[in-house]
């Protein structure tokens, strides 16, 4: 057993999914932040648990051949990037291996040769078209930036190498004008102040949308602030004030007030034009998005008689690309504004074989199926938690010839592929795409085909046990359970997770794990497990 304070030398043999180096001391796993495969490092053990320990680097004895010097002055502190000390080609290999490992962990049957090399970027900086920063006041100074690694402290940055130069300009100008016009940053503890966050979006033409998230509707010098911002950064085409007066970790509230311009910006993917609103999802790396979507459309292999479903369709990006080839495309999405944009986008692009539905996919898709609307080809692009079981079950019942799955989380992707595989689908191709250079994140497109066209499996849908976890949630129940098991050495149930989430004010389905009868006795999460779950939710930045 290792003890805290022990100083020892280790060789890093692997990199885990959060980007920590993995070493072994007498077969006991040690995680080392800031180390990469091939490094030999002197470490101090700072934390010991039942199944693993954590070590902190004291000295790099022999650097890995893939170690590079990070070009970002904020890298050590900032939580945005995790791999800026690693050669880019190695990152691409790491991402491919992550996908392979997750497929293996879920027992999916596949040959490694069907997993292609990660599609990388040529120009790996300034690729993001959206950033969200917190605004705080510290020692009488306004600070704006991302969160520090593993905490909710703000890193006051001069610029971010992943965002556009114009976005850097907006951050500087906004900070100076907050000082000039005495606009206070919101202090959560004292419940005082105005500005909470800023969100900046840009399109490929470098037009900017600035979203200022405030606690109240009104604040002094609003007009002066807007006029000066626009003259200092002429690329700003629209400014929206978003009001969020809730005690929540979600950045944006529900109310938007357009202060300047149209309240939307326009961007293009391929030859299609899209309207983007403050709250709508749009992939953050436009260069790679084209490659991602082109792969998805190529895998779908849509014919002119095919009915297509685009589930989790956002503003209809994939739907419109599919509609150019299909007989008809049905898009389903939970954010109502996105569906309004999707319908407008179809019109704007003269596409008239699409139909969009606003609502939860787990409700809408089974409903469509009950109305005898079935897909020949299904494309899904869910959030990190993957597809709800009702969606997978309905896809299986519909029995489309192909399912194309676009995913930002290899772990839930592998889980859902296994479900499809168990019901008659075969994994054909897997293409990782690097949407997020310098971070551990990876996007993947996979193609599954129905093994036997005559296989149809009827499944009863159970809709009353839905866990309608917020779409912004970053980890699934399975991921939370896995993390607790690995890091705390015990199991926790979905019931306990939902109790803790509810206690912390996170959204869980209204009927998820509630007792069926009023006087039912429900076991309560013990304090030790509550602590572990809370720590895990923090790890996944859900609180
Ligand atoms: C990864 S994004 C993909 C969007 C779109 N395909 C694109 O590439 O722009 C996932 C989308 O799923 C939506 N979403 C989350 N939970 C949902 C649910 N339960 N039902 C339907 N849509 C959901 C989100 O609002 C988001 O637009």
Automatic annotation (TrEMBL):
Q: What is its EC number?
A: 2.1.1.190
Q: Does the keyword RNA-binding apply?
A: no
One of the Pfam families matching this protein, by short name = TRAM
Q: Which UniProt keywords apply?
A: Methyltransferase, S-adenosyl-L-methionine, Transferase
Question: Which ranges carry the TRAM domain?
Answer: 1-59
**SUPFAM superfamilies linked to this entry:** Nucleic acid-binding proteins, S-adenosyl-L-methionine-dependent methyltransferases
- Binding sites annotated in the UniProt record for S-adenosyl-L-methionine: 283, 312, 333, 381
Q: Tell me where the transmembrane regions lie.
A: none
Q: Which GO terms of the molecular function aspect are on file?
A: rRNA (uridine-C5-)-methyltransferase activity
Its domain of life reads Bacteria
One GO BP on record is: rRNA base methylation
* Keyword Transferase attached: yes
* Listed InterPro entries: MeTrfase_TrmA_AS (IPR030390), MeTrfase_TrmA_CS (IPR030391), NA-bd_OB-fold (IPR012340), SAM-dependent_MTases_sf (IPR029063), TRAM_dom (IPR002792), U5_MeTrfase_fam (IPR010280)
* Active-site residues annotated for this sequence: 408, 408 (nucleophile)
The record ties this protein, via NCBIfam families, to: rumA (TIGR00479)
Family classification: Belongs to the class I-like SAM-binding methyltransferase superfamily. RNA M5U methyltransferase family.
Its name, as the record gives it, is 23S rRNA (Uracil(1939)-C(5))-methyltransferase RlmD
Q: What is the lineage of its organism?
A: Bacteria, Bacillati, Bacillota, Tissierellia, Sedimentibacter
């Amino acid at each position: 057993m290792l003890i805290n304070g022990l100083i020892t030398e280790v060789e890093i043999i692997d990199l885990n999914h959060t980007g920590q180096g993995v070493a072994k001391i007498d077969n006991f796993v040690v995680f080392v932040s800031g180390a990469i495969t091939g490094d030999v490092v002197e470490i101090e053990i700072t934390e010991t648990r039942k199944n693993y320990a954590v070590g902190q680097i004291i000295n790099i004895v022999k650097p890995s051949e893939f170690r590079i010097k990070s070009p970002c002055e904020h890298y050590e502190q900032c939580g945005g990037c995790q791999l800026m000390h690693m050669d880019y080609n190695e990152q691409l290999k790491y991402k491919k291996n992550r996908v392979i490992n997750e497929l293996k962990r879920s027992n999916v049957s596949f040959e490694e040769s069907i997993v292609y090399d990660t599609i990388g970027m040529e120009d790996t900086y300034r690729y993001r078209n959206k950033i969200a920063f917190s605004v705080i006041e510290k020692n009488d100074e306004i600070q704006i930036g991302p969160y520090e690694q593993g905490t909710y402290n703000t890193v006051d940055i001069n610029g971010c190498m992943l965002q556009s130069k114009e976005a850097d300009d907006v951050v500087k100008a906004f900070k100076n004008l907050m000082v000039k016009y005495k606009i206070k940053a919101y202090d959560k503890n004292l419940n005082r102040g105005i500005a909470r966050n800023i969100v900046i979006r840009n399109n490929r033409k470098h037009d900017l949308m600035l979203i200022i998230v405030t606690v109240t509707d009104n604040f002094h010098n609003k007009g002066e602030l807007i006029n000066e911002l626009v003259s200092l950064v002429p690329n700003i085409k629209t400014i929206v004030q978003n009001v969020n007066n809730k005690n929540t970790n979600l950045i944006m509230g529900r109310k938007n007030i357009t202060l300047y311009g149209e309240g939307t910006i326009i961007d293009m993917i391929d030859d299609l034009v899209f309207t983007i609103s403050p709250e709508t999802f749009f992939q953050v790396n436009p260069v790679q998005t084209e490659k991602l979507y082109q792969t998805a459309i190529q895998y779908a292999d849509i014919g002119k008689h095919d009915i297509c479903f685009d589930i989790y369709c956002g503003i209809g990006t994939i739907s419109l690309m599919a509609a150019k080839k299909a007989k008809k495309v049905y898009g389903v999405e939970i954010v109502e504004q996105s569906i309004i944009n999707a319908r407008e986008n179809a019109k704007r692009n003269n596409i008239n074989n699409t139909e969009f539905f606003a609502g939860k996919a787990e409700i809408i898709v089974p409903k469509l199926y009950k109305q005898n609307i079935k897909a020949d080809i299904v494309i899904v692009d869910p959030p990190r938690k993957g597809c709800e079981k009702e969606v997978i079950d309905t896809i299986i019942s519909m029995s489309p010839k192909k399912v194309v799955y676009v995913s930002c989380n290899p772990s839930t992707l592998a889980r859902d592929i296994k479900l499809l595989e168990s019901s008659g689908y075969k994994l054909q191709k897997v293409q990782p795409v690097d949407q997020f250079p310098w971070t551990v994140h990876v996007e993947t497109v996979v193609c599954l085909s129905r093994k036997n066209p005559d296989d149809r499996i009827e499944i009863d849908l159970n809709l009353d046990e839905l866990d309608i976890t917020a779409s912004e949630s970053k980890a699934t129940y399975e991921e939370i359970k896995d993390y607790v098991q690995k890091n705390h050495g015990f199991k926790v149930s979905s019931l306990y997770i939902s109790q803790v989430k509810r206690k912390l004010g996170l959204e869980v389905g209204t009927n998820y794990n509630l007792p069926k009868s009023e006087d039912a006795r429900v076991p309560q999460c013990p304090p030790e497990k509550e602590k572990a779950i809370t720590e895990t939710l923090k790890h996944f930045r859900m609180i």
